[in-house]
Task: structure prediction
Amino acid sequence: MRLVALFLFLSFVPLPLYNAHAVEVPSNLDELLTDANIGMGKRKASACKGCHTLGKGEKHSVGPNLWNIVGRKIGATEGYKYSDAMSTKGGNWEVKELYQFLNNPRWYVQGTNMTFVGVHKKQHIINVIAYLQTLKDE
Ligand code: HEC
Result:
């Protein structure tokens, strides 16, 4: 519990530093995803678990459950109360959208409740997205 509190604290503090920067999506993102390290992505995604469940059928937490997230409609999972910013964003969580959001959540969805600084190393974001792609039925 104490770790979660520390994590929440740390994720609040540097937010202003990151709000301004725009995110550039690598043009060969699909290719990079094919070569991604899913195991490393899974490790990095432990940072998401303070606020999200990742397994099929699990309950929403601080954030919505992330099973089947890739390709899912943005801000539209049943039983979760999104911010207005998220529920009116529109579009789907394709890999490009995820890349931008995970790099800088407060820039990509201005007004989001996701108080998380984001994942900043390109290879880490790619690994996390590759891992998120596995969270679905075969
Ligand atoms: C500090 C808590 C917190 C952390 C850590 C966090 N999130 Fe979130 N996340 C949220 C909240 C809250 C929302 C809902 C945001 C809103 O409604 O504006 C959200 C929303 C999302 C969404 C949009 C879901 C949808 O249904 O549209 C995605 C995708 C997402 N998070 C991915 C991640 C990933 C991947 C990580 C880890 C790298 C992560 N989040 C870490 C709190 C968090």
The CA atoms of residues 103 and 121 lie 8 Å apart.
